[in-house]
Each structure stands twice: as C-alpha cells, then as structure tokens.
TrEMBL record:
Stored InterPro entries: Ig-like_dom, Ig-like_dom_sf, Ig-like_fold, Ig_sub, IL-1_rcpt_fam, TIR_dom, Toll_tir_struct_dom_sf
Signal peptide: 1-20
Origin superkingdom: Eukaryota
UniProt record similarity statement: Belongs to the interleukin-1 receptor family.
Species annotation: Labrus bergylta
TM ranges: 332-354
Cross-referenced Gene3D superfamilies: Immunoglobulins, Toll/interleukin-1 receptor homology (TIR) domain
Protein name: Interleukin 1 receptor like 1
Residue ranges constituting the TIR domain according to the UniProt record: 375-539
Length: 553
C-alpha cells in the first residue's frame, strides 16, 4: 500500500511538472521537491524552505493535493493552509500524497512548491520515519532534534522533550541531546517530541534518529590458551584431536589466527592430518581455535614436535607439544587390587582374631589397668539345677566344680564366688548373697536346660536361694548397672529356646548371645580353646587376686 502511494505521487509529480512547463514555464520557478515520512496520529507543520516566515497572505498562494484536490484555508479543518504553510493536525494514512503550491508575489514573480508526504501507521515503530542516523567513533555523541520538529517548536513556542524506547529523559528539553561515554548499551532510537498549541489545542510532532555505536576495537598481543602442557598422552592406532586456542583483542576480525605445524611444516603438506578452525567472540576478546585431527596415531607422531602458533597484530606467540604413549594401566590395577585384597584380608583377620589380639596384649597393659575398685571377687557365679536329668546334671557338676575353677582360678588367677561352693555355714543366706554380689565385678550366669523353670516342690530351699541370687544379680546388672554379665550355656535349651526365661534375662540374652560350652569337643577343656578365650575376654583385665599365669594364646 505504501509503495503504491509513493509511485502514485511520483506519477502526479511528472504530470504537474509537465503542466507547469506548458502553462507557466515562462512565469513560475519550480522549487525542489521536499519528501517527508511521518507517523499517523501526529501533527505536521510544513513551510517550504525558501519561505522565511509564514506570513504570506492566503490569497497569494494556493495548495493542491495530487494536482487536483484543492486544500482549504479554513483553519477548522484537519488539513488546511495558512500564511503559506500546510497544517496537518491529525495525520491519517489517506493524507499521503503529492502536494503542490502556486505562489504569486506582489512583484509578479511565480513559484511552485512541492511536498511529497508519506504517512505510515504506528506499527512501523519509527523505523520508516527515521531522520539521519547518528554514528561515529567519538566518546560523547550529540543527537540533534530534526529541523522540522525544532522549527515547529520555534514557530509555536512549544516544548521539546526526549525519549528512548518509550523512556523519557526528564531533564532534557534542548534542541540537542548529548550522550556521554557512549557504549553499546546506549545504542537505539532517540525521539525528539515537540508539544505545541494551535488555536488553544495541543498537538505533538516528533522526529527520531538512530544512534549507532561501533564495536570498540582493542588490539592485544595473542595469548596461547591451549595447549597448556608440553606433553599429551595418546593411544597408538587411535584418533586424537589437538586444540590450538589463541586469545586476541576485541573485535579484531580476521587479524586473529591460529594454526598448527608439525616439525615446522604446514599441515596441508602432510597426509593423514586434518585441520579445522572455529572462532568465538566472548566478552574478554576474540578466541580462535585450530583443531588438528590425527586419524591414527603412529610411532612417528611420538617423535614429532607439534607447534601451535597464534597471530594477532603483534609478534606471533607459539607453544610446542609432544605426544607420549599412554602407560599400561595393568600394574596400577594389579596394585589397587592387591591393596584392596590386603585391606579385606586384614579386616577379616582382625575381626576373627580380635579376641586373640586383645588377650595377647593384655599383659602389657596390666600395670596401667590395675583395678582400684576394692572388690574381692572377679565374678559371682549363679545357676539353677532344678529339673535337670542325670546327663545334664553330670555335665553341669563337672563344669562348675572342675572346668570353671581350673581355668579361671588356677591358670588365670581370677577369684570366683561360686554359689553353693563358697557359702559360709551358719551365715544368713540373704545377707551373704547381697554382700558377695556387692563385692563381685562380674555376674556369671550358667544357663542349663532347667534354668528358669518352676522349682521342684521337694527342694524349696534351693529354689529360694537360687531364685534370690538371680534376682539380686539381675537387679545389679539391669537396674544399677554396676556389673557386666557373662552368659554361659550348658546343653540344649529345648524347642522353646529362651522363651521360658525371666524377661530380664531374655533382655540380656538379646543384647549378647550366651557362650555355648562345647562339651563334645576334644579341646573344650583346654586353656587356649575358643570357648575359654571368649570367657577370659569378658572377664576383668586384671584379676582381683593375682595376675594371670602362662598367658600364651
């Protein structure tokens, strides 16, 4: 639509010029054609440039549009003329056209004025109505208000203002806008707006200029970014890529270059190599990377010298690189596996022989770990023998009367208080149990198949004594937490397991499983058997009576 109007205007220009030449060629002088691009909705005041002021009587001049439509001088019209000037108070798309004026002076001279007006809609966002672009390399830039806008403000005593991208400069009202310390962020379209009045009504006329800021060129000596090392590992027979990255100044264009050479020769003269280049423009400068692709690394590549060279307006910079064959990872893997195997093996040995190690080093800490609690007994042995069959009773009797004292007392020097063996005749049983329990450092509970079962009615004394020992011992272990408990199991507890035992004893069993007496084992009675090592580990470090003898594991 806009281009067709322009062609239409040119067409009428040719017709008008032809008509004038036929009728008034000897009388009228044709002035230059003035072309204006304006936005719809604004006001436009046009006075031919040869006229010094707008005080020409209306009867001395007539205006026509497209050489046919006569313009009125009625100032109530949106489009009219007065004093030789054209007024467009509210530009519309249809106001586009070719305007001519015939001016006859009082002295008999005749002049033809021409205006080619193109009105654009607002969707063009000033891109089609820009005046001359402001550019250059100076640090501070001056943006002048377009002459038509400035003259309109001067004639009608209007007020100038400036804006950029709809952002108003509040303190700028002059005919020139200065942009100080120009950088790329200040680039854009600056608009000068004149607000003026005509017959007490306010109108606006604007003109825009584009500020272009050229990229600042900063020249620096080239800097090699990669290769950073003098050697690089490679696998023989495989492909490898070598990067030669060069950092130059800002906006230096093709002056920044990077390339590879092999033993001083260009890559293009050697087969089997491919060279590509890529360019980047980060904030800190121009980076050019030459990528050398070696399709199959051969033995000769390990003997060659690769040179990365960078050019950038100064003395070239260079860095050399040599390839090294990768070492085999097999020794490293074997070493790592050996260390791992050793750590696992050591952990297993420590876990399995933890008790043995603890017993081995006990003699060396005997002096530092002397017991000073004043207790007389190392362990108080409590048990029940009710409801035992003959084999179980024989096993229990042999363990308590022979095996237990022979190892812990005779060989280790521990002092045990064994229920039934160390009772003092005639002493109150209840006081005796309480007193001996307070003087003991461990509570050793012997679990038999009859433990925890209801006592036989035929042995009320044993029932009372045994039950009281258990109650006092569990009270010291669970409530007062004064004694550690050693659980030893003789024989099979039956299908019910430990379910028939008292709750307190079940709690202790849940925390630490009982040590089972392997009576059928040949070495069960031996001092250094697995069973006795576990028992000795749970006993106090230093016996209450005397030191252990023959601590050989």
């Amino acid at each position: 639509m806009d281009s067709s109007r322009l062609l239409f205007s040119v067409f009428f220009l040719l017709i008008t010029t032809s008509d004038c030449s036929d009728t008034d060629e000897l009388q009228c002088n044709d002035m230059d054609n003035e072309i204006f691009h304006r936005l719809e909705g604004e006001a436009f005041y046009f006075l031919p440039y040869v006229l010094m002021d707008g005080n020409i009587p209306d009867e001395n001049i007539t205006w026509h549009k497209n050489n046919s439509e006569e313009i009125s001088n009625n100032e109530d019209r949106m489009v009219h003329y007065h004093g030789g000037a054209l007024f467009f108070l509210n530009l519309q798309i249809e106001d586009s056209g070719f305007y001519t004026a015939l001016h006859r002076t009082s002295s008999g001279e005749c002049f033809n004025y021409h205006l080619n007006l193109v009105v654009f809609d607002k969707s063009h966002a000033n891109t089609e109505v820009l005046f001359r672009t402001v550019s250059g390399g100076s640090k501070n830039r001056k943006i002048p208000c377009p002459d038509n806008v400035k003259e309109t403000c001067s004639v009608f005593r209007g007020k100038l203002s400036w804006e950029k991208d709809s952002n108003i400069f509040p303190d700028e009202h002059g005919a020139q806008l200065w942009i100080m310390d120009v950088d790329k962020s200040q680039e854009g379209i600056y608009t000068c707006v004149c607000t003026w009045k005509h017959h007490e009504k306010e109108y606006k006329t604007s003109g825009s200029r584009k500020l272009e800021v050229e990229d600042q060129v900063v020249v620096k000596p080239p800097k090699i970014l990669s290769p950073a090392n003098k050697e690089q590992f490679a696998d023989e027979g495989l492909e490898i890529k070598l990067n030669c990255s060069v950092l130059c100044g800002k906006n230096v264009g093709n002056d920044c270059q990077a390339t590879w050479r092999i033993d001083g020769s260009p890559i293009s003269q050697i087969d089997g190599y491919n060279l590509t280049t890529k360019r980047e423009e980060p904030a800190d400068g121009t980076t050019v990377t030459a990528i050398l692709t070696i399709k199959r690394v051969s033995a000769k590549d390990f003997l060659a010298e690769f040179t990365c060279t960078g050019h950038g307006g100064f003395e070239p910079a260079s860095a050399t690189l040599t390839l090294k064959p990768k070492e085999s990872k097999t020794p490293l893997i074997i070493g790592a596996l050996s260390v791992l195997f050793f750590c696992v093996f050591a952990a297993v040995l420590i876990k399995y022989f933890a008790i043995d190690l603890a017993l081995l080093f006990r003699p060396y800490f005997t002096l530092a770990l002397n017991n000073k609690d004043g207790r007389v007994f190392d362990a108080y042995v409590v048990y029940q023998t009710q409801n035992l069959d003959n084999p179980s009773e024989d096993t229990f009797s042999l363990f308590v009367t022979k095996n237990l004292p022979s190892v812990l007392e005779e060989k280790c020097g521990y002092r045990l208080f064994i229920q039934g063996r160390d009772d003092i005749p005639g002493e109150d049983r209840l006081e005796l149990v309480e007193d001996r329990m307070n003087q003991s450092r461990r509570l050793m509970v012997i679990l038999t198949p009859g433990s925890g079962s209801e006592s036989s009615p035929t042995s009320p004394q044993n029932s009372v004594i045994g039950g009281f020992d258990w109650q006092v011992g569990l009270h010291h272990a669970l409530v007062q937490r004064e004694m550690n408990v050693i659980l030893i199991q003789l024989g099979d507890m039956g299908p019910e397991g430990y379910a028939h035992l008292p709750p307190g004893l079940q709690h202790l069993i849940h925390k630490s499983a009982p040590i089972k007496w392997p009576e059928d084992s040949r070495g069960a009675s031996a001092y250094n058997s697995r069973f006795w090592k576990r028992v000795r580990y749970l006993m106090p470090v230093t016996p209450a009576k005397k030191d252990c003898q023959s601590l050989i594991i």
